[in-house]
Amino acid sequence: MNIKIVKKKSPLAKSFSKSLASAEAQVELRKLEIVEELLQFMKREGINRSELAQRMGVGPSRITAMLNGTSNLTIDTLVRAGHAVGADLAQTFVPQGYQGHWVSAQKVQSTGVNCIKVEFAPKPMQHAISPQLKQKQPAKHDAEDAA
């Protein structure tokens, strides 16, 4: 018996890739990214959740909700969290279908104040290719191949 392997796009993978394009999925993705960045700053600075709560002037349960994604992250909360870990919030908009990346950061003197200059350049987004599912199907030969 001959077995023929046919590559097909998985309907589940196609559905999943479409769902990532939804606004709701983008909100959740951005929340995960910002929380991950905040956790990295906390780790680098040796700040635990209790200390972050104290620095932000909120209860530990607020920090838990913020870090596990159950609370709405407002600009106010993000700015205060950034200040608590020694960081500033930087945000921008990028045209749909593009992904942005920071291209340079340099220290400049401006009116006697040190500041960091960060430029932002968009680049085309690489769309994920839907994985293909290999399915085994019997060959279209008659009984002589099966023998």
TrEMBL record:
Pfam families: HTH_3. InterPro entries: Cro/C1-type_HTH, Lambda_DNA-bd_dom_sf. Residues 128-147 are annotated as: Disordered. Gene3D superfamilies: lambda repressor-like DNA-binding domains (1.10.260.40). SMART domains: HTH_XRE. It comes from the Bacteria. CDD domains: HTH_XRE. Residues 38-93 form the HTH cro/C1-type domain. This is Helix-turn-helix domain-containing protein. It comes from Thalassobacterium sedimentorum.
